[in-house]
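Supplementary Methods. Inverse-folding protocol.

Structures were first reduced to a discrete structure-token string of length 154. This string, shown here, constituted the complete conditioning input.
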């Protein structure tokens, strides 16, 4: 996760892609370490984006807009209205779960650019993450040894 503040009133504490029924780490005051490599996710995985933030002032109409890019082409852009919040926090928001695409055409690295804005569409903060969709590994002799859930800071 590469998060930058564009307003001193908004602090993005954590942003994580959760698989299965994992919990976010919203209680921590320090963000997760940044990853140099993209998070690897299996095709067809169900993921939920967890956002944790603090506010230095009340914010009306907070929205999170993300643009997903693959190989220089915008794959998707989506805006989520988060609501209005009082100064304080940390606030932890889980976006709607999303099923990652499946099939050979979906494999590759995705760059996701996110922007937090207020009701006047003023940018409060931005974030960047990368993930890579890889083929689901076929069950074999070592299939039972893999951990079921993987939390990743992105």
């Amino acid at each position: 996760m590469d998060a930058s503040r564009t307003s001193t009133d908004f602090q993005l504490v954590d942003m994580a892609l959760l698989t299965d029924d994992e919990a976010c780490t919203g209680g921590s005051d320090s963000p997760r370490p940044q990853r140099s490599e993209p998070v690897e996710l299996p095709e067809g995985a169900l993921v939920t984006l967890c956002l944790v933030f603090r506010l230095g002032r009340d914010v009306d109409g907070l929205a999170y807009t993300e643009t997903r890019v693959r190989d220089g082409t915008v794959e998707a852009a989506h805006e989520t209205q988060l609501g209005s919040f009082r100064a304080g926090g940390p606030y932890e928001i889980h976006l709607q779960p999303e099923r990652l695409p499946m099939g050979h055409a979906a494999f590759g690295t995705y760059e996701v650019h996110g922007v937090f804005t207020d009701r006047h569409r003023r940018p409060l903060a931005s974030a960047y993450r990368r993930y890579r969709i890889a083929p689901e590994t076929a069950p074999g002799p070592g299939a039972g040894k893999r951990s079921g859930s993987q939390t990743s800071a992105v």
